[in-house]
Amino acid sequence: MRHFLDFEKPIAELEGKIEELRHLSDTGDLNIADEVSKLQTKVERQLRQTYAKLSPWQKVQVARHPERPHFTDYVKSLVEDFIPLAGDRAYAEDSALIGGLGRFRGYSVLILGHEKGADTDSRLKHNFGMARPEGYRKARRLMQCADRFGLPIITLVDTSGAYPGVGAEERGQAEAIARSIDTCLAVRVPLITVIIGEGGSGGAIAIAAGNEVFMLEHAVYSVISPEGCGSILWRDSEHTVDAAEALRLTSQDLRGFGLVDDVIEEPLGGAHRAHDITTARVGDRVEQALRELVGMDGGVLRARRREKYLAMGPSGIA
Length: 318
Fold this sequence. Notes:
Layout: H1 9-22, H2 32-51, H3 56-63, H4 71-78, E1 79-84, E2 97-104, E3 107-114, H5 120-125, H6 133-148, E4 153-159, H7 166-170, H8 173-186, E5 191-200, H9 201-205, E6 212-216, E7 220-222, H10 226-233, H11 240-247, H12 251-257, E8 262-264, H13 275-293, H14 298-310
Parallel strand pairs: 3-4, 4-5, 5-6, 5-7, 6-8
Antiparallel strand pairs: 1-2, 2-3
Helix pairs in contact: 1-2, 4-13, 6-8, 10-11
């Protein structure tokens, strides 16, 4: 059963009618194929109208859709001979942040990203994509390894934020995130980032300070979640929608501010409706960026990356 969001109820009703018709037999008075075709046309029209005018809060819901493709889906679709690398060599393995080596369209790369999980068991295993300090220390170790061997780095961001538990704070969550950001800015190889779902706070930027940063059309990227912002500013949960508006967290807003370099169009109705199309479009955009960056001098890559982020404050971007 497909999961429908609250604002998709008219679409759910139409698709429910289509499923009912497909279980009927043709009669002299009703041509099932014709009726299904008419309803599918209505569904496409409704999807186009609905997704053309999504509010920021609705985009947050789409970015969090449980059927949206996750890190492991991109790896299966785009990376050959993937070899996962585990552990931070200091404390433990963190399954919320996965990384490893593989072949991406002819390039040997390190690919790294958050994994939220697709069902109850996997979500618990991956801690809903919220990494602990050991996850960011693993990310740092793997990026340094890629730098040592001259491998381009691809990072896929999809997290509501770093895990805020007591144990994580005791083990130095803030320090681990800061050092991961520092490593992003220090490596001398191409670093390409794609925000594929949620980009939440330091947990996202820890692996997202890239030469090129792309966002999927209905992804979001923000210093805090709308719920967290609402609870701090208004001290209740009723202002979540207002907070989403104020945060300017959509891909369109961030592209306008110059905080992301490009927006990758999603299939009609969102990435969750067509995984193959979504992963292929992400792959195409990453490949294009790799072709432009591979072969550039490492010092130039690092200098341009640093200049890019240093220029954001003085230019008036908050």
